[in-house]
Batch of 2 targets.
Target 1
Amino acid sequence: MPDTTITEKEKKLAKQCLECPFCKRARRKQKGLIFWFVKKLEGSVCPACKAYEKVYGRKAHEPMPSQTNPSAE
């Protein structure tokens, strides 16, 4: 059974990911070089991205649920 408890450290790291300019842009734009970079390297390199996935249940590059795609307008 995997450990599903979320520590304070993981919450802080997830908050860092929320505030990270690269991850923020990847979530907002959903295309481009930064999106590709975050998508390919998030889980293997960045501890904040790993924590974000554990805390919020989605990858760091995936859009926020309340976010709409600005290019679709």
Target 2
Amino acid sequence: MGAKLGDGMYKDRFAFQEDFRLMISNAKRYNIPGSFAHNEAIALEMFFEKRPYIIFFLLNRNQNFSRMGCYQQDT
């Protein structure tokens, strides 16, 4: 998702949300309830569900950086 975000490959926030929801669903499905990965998936899901504007902000910020050639992925 980070590479797609950095390359401006998401056409809109709905495409990003679809990938995000798939990632969360997979993390909850394939990790044991109570495990770190399962719990973090739930926490991320709750965080973004309460703050949908953050997705819009991230998409706009990274699309602007990509156009300017300034995108840096966090390591």
